Amino acid sequence: MASFSSAPGSGSYNTTDNLLFPPPPPSVITAPQTLPDASLEPTSIQSIITSLSLTAFVEGGYMAETDRNPLKILSPFPLYPATTFSCSDANQGSSSTDTFDPSSYYRPGFDPKLRNASTTIYYLLTGANGGAGGGGGRQGGSPKGYLHRNRGRIIHTLHRGRGRYVILHADEKPCRVESFVVGKNVEKGERVQWIVEGGKYKGTFVFPLEDDEDGDKGDGDDEMIFISETTVPGWEVFDHDFLDRKGLEMLMEGDEDKIRQLQWLIKEEQ
Does the predicted model carry a pTM greater than 0.85? Predict the structure, then answer.
């Protein structure tokens, strides 16, 4: 019987079949949802963060925009924000729709009728509890990227590390759940490049080295997922939304088994 831990504070449950994907260990599932603190990361991770000027990101992990194509094109998207959250800061969410202000999703100079042709970022997820070599009881690490959706098409390229992506095809009925491993072992079917079309939710988690699904330990400092993402048309917070519990229930058509397997990838409203 396979055991699967559910969301933080909700215990665990057992299921005999119908696993959507092999679950990660509790250290990943119960990792705090607060913005990560780079000072708690292992020295090797801190070096990457500092060298590339990465900052903590609301999706989980760290990011830095490296390119915004100056070419402007007409937006193919609706003229209203994708998200239902209200923000005073474009990178921070709030659950109150009563104070919803669409202009809070406009970065300086943003025109909802236009988009940059493309944007590119670095994105880094790190191992739970400080990652490889963290130790000392530190509670660093940001091992999961919460289920979220973008309107644009995103091309992902792996630089280092290993983990699993979970894709919810919200534009299909019934909603298809897809998962795959990203890593350098292409002979085993791991992906070093993958594309997520707009309108689909994606979530991610890092493989802890000691609990790697295939027993591969890597190089000892690869408890991470370090990638580049290119979004076409260019990324805007205006075109981004997180999946909430109600949305998950609707997509899974009330299937409690599937909901329990996915709910720990839901970002809780702060």
Answer: no
